[in-house]
Amino acid sequence: MQNGDPLALRHTGPTGLDELQQQILRVYSASHADQMHNPWFHPDQFWDRLINLYAPTRAFDLVSGWRDEEMVGYAFGSARDTDNPWPEIRRVLPHLQPDQPVYIFREFAVHPDWQRRSYGHEIHDELLRNREEQVAQLLVRPDNGPALAAYHSWGWVKATTKQPFPDSPVFDLLILDLTVRRSVKDD
Ligand SMILES: CC(C)(COP(=O)(O)OP(=O)(O)OC[C@H]1O[C@@H](n2cnc3c(N)ncnc32)[C@H](O)[C@@H]1OP(=O)(O)O)[C@@H](O)C(=O)NCCC(=O)NCCS
Question: What angle do CA 107, 67, 6 make, to 5 degrees?
Protein backbone atom coordinates (compact mmCIF):
# COMPACT_ATOMS: atom_id res chain seq x y z
CA MET A 1 0.00 0.00 0.00
CA GLN A 2 1.35 3.44 -0.98
CA ASN A 3 1.35 6.54 1.23
CA GLY A 4 -1.58 8.24 -0.54
CA ASP A 5 -3.80 5.16 -0.70
CA PRO A 6 -7.24 5.45 0.91
CA LEU A 7 -7.97 3.89 4.24
CA ALA A 8 -9.83 0.63 4.48
CA LEU A 9 -12.76 1.28 6.83
CA ARG A 10 -14.38 -1.43 8.96
CA HIS A 11 -17.42 -1.44 11.24
CA THR A 12 -17.34 -3.50 14.43
CA GLY A 13 -20.20 -4.14 16.84
CA PRO A 14 -19.95 -4.95 20.57
CA THR A 15 -19.08 -8.61 20.07
CA GLY A 16 -16.03 -7.89 17.86
CA LEU A 17 -14.19 -5.62 20.29
CA ASP A 18 -12.11 -8.25 22.11
CA GLU A 19 -10.53 -9.29 18.83
CA LEU A 20 -9.40 -5.68 18.21
CA GLN A 21 -8.28 -4.97 21.79
CA GLN A 22 -4.55 -4.85 21.08
CA GLN A 23 -4.89 -2.57 18.04
CA ILE A 24 -7.40 -0.23 19.71
CA LEU A 25 -5.23 0.12 22.83
CA ARG A 26 -2.13 0.75 20.71
CA VAL A 27 -3.86 3.69 18.99
CA TYR A 28 -5.44 4.90 22.25
CA SER A 29 -2.19 4.84 24.24
CA ALA A 30 -0.10 6.59 21.59
CA SER A 31 -2.71 9.26 20.87
CA HIS A 32 -3.43 9.97 24.56
CA ALA A 33 0.20 9.80 25.77
CA ASP A 34 0.00 13.43 26.96
CA GLN A 35 -2.92 12.58 29.32
CA MET A 36 -1.35 9.69 31.23
CA HIS A 37 -0.80 11.85 34.34
CA ASN A 38 -4.58 11.59 34.87
CA PRO A 39 -5.77 8.11 35.99
CA TRP A 40 -9.09 8.64 34.23
CA PHE A 41 -7.24 8.31 30.92
CA HIS A 42 -5.34 5.13 31.88
CA PRO A 43 -5.76 2.50 29.10
CA ASP A 44 -7.30 0.01 31.58
CA GLN A 45 -9.97 2.54 32.55
CA PHE A 46 -10.62 3.42 28.92
CA TRP A 47 -11.06 -0.28 28.06
CA ASP A 48 -13.32 -0.85 31.05
CA ARG A 49 -15.57 2.07 29.99
CA LEU A 50 -15.62 0.83 26.40
CA ILE A 51 -16.59 -2.76 27.25
CA ASN A 52 -18.84 -2.24 30.27
CA LEU A 53 -20.48 1.15 29.68
CA TYR A 54 -20.45 1.94 25.97
CA ALA A 55 -20.52 -1.39 24.11
CA PRO A 56 -23.85 -2.45 25.70
CA THR A 57 -25.63 0.76 24.62
CA ARG A 58 -28.07 0.77 21.70
CA ALA A 59 -26.67 0.90 18.16
CA PHE A 60 -23.06 0.72 19.34
CA ASP A 61 -20.67 0.89 16.37
CA LEU A 62 -16.91 1.25 16.11
CA VAL A 63 -15.35 2.38 12.84
CA SER A 64 -11.67 1.65 12.40
CA GLY A 65 -9.35 2.76 9.61
CA TRP A 66 -6.64 0.40 8.36
CA ARG A 67 -3.53 0.48 6.27
CA ASP A 68 -2.70 -3.13 5.52
CA GLU A 69 -2.84 -4.87 8.92
CA GLU A 70 -2.27 -1.70 10.98
CA MET A 71 -5.16 0.13 12.59
CA VAL A 72 -4.43 3.84 12.18
CA GLY A 73 -7.48 5.18 14.02
CA TYR A 74 -10.97 4.53 15.33
CA ALA A 75 -14.16 6.26 16.42
CA PHE A 76 -17.11 4.75 18.22
CA GLY A 77 -20.55 5.84 19.28
CA SER A 78 -24.09 4.81 20.13
CA ALA A 79 -27.58 6.22 20.57
CA ARG A 80 -28.48 8.06 23.78
CA ASP A 81 -31.78 7.03 25.30
CA THR A 82 -31.38 7.61 29.00
CA ASP A 83 -32.08 11.30 29.49
CA ASN A 84 -33.29 14.38 27.64
CA PRO A 85 -30.47 16.44 26.09
CA TRP A 86 -32.82 18.66 24.07
CA PRO A 87 -32.82 21.78 26.26
CA GLU A 88 -29.06 22.19 25.71
CA ILE A 89 -29.36 21.28 22.00
CA ARG A 90 -32.17 23.78 21.38
CA ARG A 91 -30.07 26.56 22.82
CA VAL A 92 -27.80 26.36 19.74
CA LEU A 93 -30.05 24.62 17.21
CA PRO A 94 -33.49 26.13 17.95
CA HIS A 95 -34.95 25.06 14.58
CA LEU A 96 -34.81 21.34 15.46
CA GLN A 97 -37.80 19.55 16.96
CA PRO A 98 -36.97 17.67 20.19
CA ASP A 99 -38.54 14.39 19.18
CA GLN A 100 -35.74 11.82 18.88
CA PRO A 101 -32.79 10.35 20.71
CA VAL A 102 -29.41 11.83 19.74
CA TYR A 103 -26.26 10.03 18.61
CA ILE A 104 -23.25 10.10 20.92
CA PHE A 105 -19.91 10.32 19.14
CA ARG A 106 -18.10 8.81 22.11
CA GLU A 107 -14.39 8.50 21.42
CA PHE A 108 -12.08 9.19 18.54
CA ALA A 109 -8.34 8.83 17.95
CA VAL A 110 -5.76 8.55 15.17
CA HIS A 111 -2.29 7.20 15.88
CA PRO A 112 0.22 10.11 15.91
CA ASP A 113 2.17 8.48 13.06
CA TRP A 114 -0.88 8.96 10.83
CA GLN A 115 -2.40 12.27 11.97
CA ARG A 116 -2.98 15.28 9.66
CA ARG A 117 -3.69 13.11 6.60
CA SER A 118 -7.50 13.46 6.73
CA TYR A 119 -7.80 9.92 8.08
CA GLY A 120 -9.56 11.29 11.16
CA HIS A 121 -12.07 13.05 8.91
CA GLU A 122 -12.76 9.85 6.97
CA ILE A 123 -13.32 7.82 10.14
CA HIS A 124 -15.52 10.56 11.66
CA ASP A 125 -17.70 10.76 8.54
CA GLU A 126 -18.04 6.99 8.25
CA LEU A 127 -19.30 6.67 11.83
CA LEU A 128 -21.93 9.36 11.22
CA ARG A 129 -22.91 8.22 7.72
CA ASN A 130 -26.53 7.07 7.54
CA ARG A 131 -27.29 7.89 11.17
CA GLU A 132 -30.99 8.59 11.46
CA GLU A 133 -30.78 10.92 14.49
CA GLN A 134 -31.08 14.69 13.94
CA VAL A 135 -28.13 15.54 16.15
CA ALA A 136 -24.84 14.09 17.30
CA GLN A 137 -23.15 15.04 20.55
CA LEU A 138 -19.59 14.66 21.87
CA LEU A 139 -17.37 15.68 24.77
CA VAL A 140 -13.91 17.17 24.25
CA ARG A 141 -11.36 18.61 26.68
CA PRO A 142 -11.43 22.41 26.34
CA ASP A 143 -7.59 22.43 26.11
CA ASN A 144 -7.53 19.87 23.27
CA GLY A 145 -6.64 22.32 20.49
CA PRO A 146 -6.14 19.83 17.62
CA ALA A 147 -9.43 18.03 18.28
CA LEU A 148 -11.35 21.30 18.71
CA ALA A 149 -9.89 22.65 15.45
CA ALA A 150 -10.99 19.48 13.68
CA TYR A 151 -14.49 19.46 15.17
CA HIS A 152 -15.11 23.14 14.45
CA SER A 153 -13.98 22.73 10.85
CA TRP A 154 -16.45 19.82 10.53
CA GLY A 155 -19.41 21.89 11.81
CA TRP A 156 -19.58 20.99 15.52
CA VAL A 157 -20.59 23.81 17.87
CA LYS A 158 -20.33 24.15 21.64
CA ALA A 159 -23.60 23.83 23.55
CA THR A 160 -22.47 23.68 27.18
CA THR A 161 -19.93 22.00 29.49
CA LYS A 162 -20.32 18.64 31.19
CA GLN A 163 -18.51 16.42 33.72
CA PRO A 164 -19.82 12.92 32.96
CA PHE A 165 -18.08 11.15 35.90
CA PRO A 166 -16.93 12.54 39.25
CA ASP A 167 -13.29 11.64 38.42
CA SER A 168 -13.36 12.79 34.78
CA PRO A 169 -12.33 16.18 33.44
CA VAL A 170 -14.94 18.83 32.75
CA PHE A 171 -15.50 18.69 29.01
CA ASP A 172 -16.97 20.98 26.38
CA LEU A 173 -20.14 19.42 24.99
CA LEU A 174 -20.32 19.93 21.22
CA ILE A 175 -23.22 19.16 18.94
CA LEU A 176 -23.56 18.59 15.21
CA ASP A 177 -26.71 19.06 13.12
CA LEU A 178 -26.95 15.79 11.14
CA THR A 179 -29.94 17.04 9.12
CA VAL A 180 -27.63 19.54 7.39
CA ARG A 181 -25.21 16.75 6.42
CA ARG A 182 -28.13 14.72 5.05
CA SER A 183 -29.53 17.60 2.95
CA VAL A 184 -26.06 18.39 1.51
CA LYS A 185 -25.67 14.71 0.52
CA ASP A 186 -29.20 14.56 -0.95
CA ASP A 187 -28.67 17.59 -3.28
C1 LIG B 1 -8.39 14.62 16.87
C2 LIG B 1 -7.70 13.61 15.96
C3 LIG B 1 -8.45 12.29 16.00
C4 LIG B 1 -7.71 14.15 14.51
O5 LIG B 1 -7.17 13.13 13.67
P6 LIG B 1 -6.43 13.48 12.31
O7 LIG B 1 -6.34 12.23 11.50
O8 LIG B 1 -5.18 14.23 12.56
O9 LIG B 1 -7.50 14.45 11.63
P10 LIG B 1 -7.44 15.05 10.17
O11 LIG B 1 -6.15 14.75 9.47
O12 LIG B 1 -8.70 14.63 9.47
O13 LIG B 1 -7.42 16.60 10.50
C14 LIG B 1 -8.55 17.35 10.47
C15 LIG B 1 -8.29 18.75 10.99
O16 LIG B 1 -8.02 18.72 12.37
C17 LIG B 1 -7.27 19.87 12.72
N18 LIG B 1 -6.04 19.41 13.36
C19 LIG B 1 -5.64 18.13 13.50
N20 LIG B 1 -4.47 18.09 14.19
C21 LIG B 1 -4.15 19.37 14.47
C22 LIG B 1 -3.08 19.98 15.17
N23 LIG B 1 -2.07 19.26 15.70
N24 LIG B 1 -3.07 21.32 15.29
C25 LIG B 1 -4.08 22.07 14.74
N26 LIG B 1 -5.12 21.54 14.07
C27 LIG B 1 -5.16 20.21 13.95
C28 LIG B 1 -7.01 20.61 11.41
O29 LIG B 1 -8.07 21.53 11.24
C30 LIG B 1 -7.11 19.47 10.42
O31 LIG B 1 -7.37 19.88 9.12
P32 LIG B 1 -6.13 20.24 8.15
O33 LIG B 1 -5.10 19.16 8.28
O34 LIG B 1 -6.77 20.32 6.80
O35 LIG B 1 -5.61 21.58 8.64
C36 LIG B 1 -6.21 13.39 16.39
O37 LIG B 1 -5.59 14.66 16.52
C38 LIG B 1 -6.06 12.62 17.69
O39 LIG B 1 -6.09 11.40 17.71
N40 LIG B 1 -5.85 13.34 18.82
C41 LIG B 1 -5.59 12.68 20.13
C42 LIG B 1 -6.84 11.98 20.66
C43 LIG B 1 -7.96 12.97 20.80
O44 LIG B 1 -7.77 14.08 21.25
N45 LIG B 1 -9.17 12.54 20.39
C46 LIG B 1 -10.36 13.36 20.45
C47 LIG B 1 -10.96 13.25 21.81
S48 LIG B 1 -12.47 14.19 21.91
Answer: 90
